[in-house]
Write the structure tokens for this entry.
Amino acid sequence: MVNLMPETIASNTELRLLNRMFEALSSFIADYGYLNLFVLSFLASTILPLGSEALVVALIYQGFNPLAVVLVATSGNYLGSCTTYYLGLKGRPVLEKYLSPSPEKLEKSEKLFKKYGIYTLLFTWVPGIGDAITMVAGLMQLPFRYFSILVFLGKFGRYFAIAYLTVFFSK
């Protein structure tokens, strides 16, 4: 005869613990949703391997205002890109010392700039290469005015699309 009781107790205990952890995480997101989104979006637009899209979706599902979510995420992501642009503006030695971007990503971004010009900045939201694009924009000393407009529009477009699709598919 096999006794399954100890395993069942362990499973129930683990489930209760996971449930409490999920409730705590949900509460934290609800209480500090916009602040969490801003910080995560800011960090995601540096070379840190983070993404803010899942939090955008989670906040909208929890009833946060979709337009406010889009604006907070866009602002944080844009300001993070400005930080990376500034580091690029300070030159390659600063980038290599503090961020150590891969030479391949920088080369790929430089080729995109040569081929498509400043409109490449509309694609700073693309994972993997977007951060390198903002660095290269700084390295190339592109005017900040053009950088700001195109980067903000590109990032706004991405978050708007994510929010729209989230609202559309949640109905």
In short: The two ends are 50 Å apart (CA to CA). Helices lie at 5-31, 33-44, 53-61, 66-89, 92-98, 103-116, 130-139, 144-170. The first helix runs from residue 5 to 31. The mean pLDDT is 84.
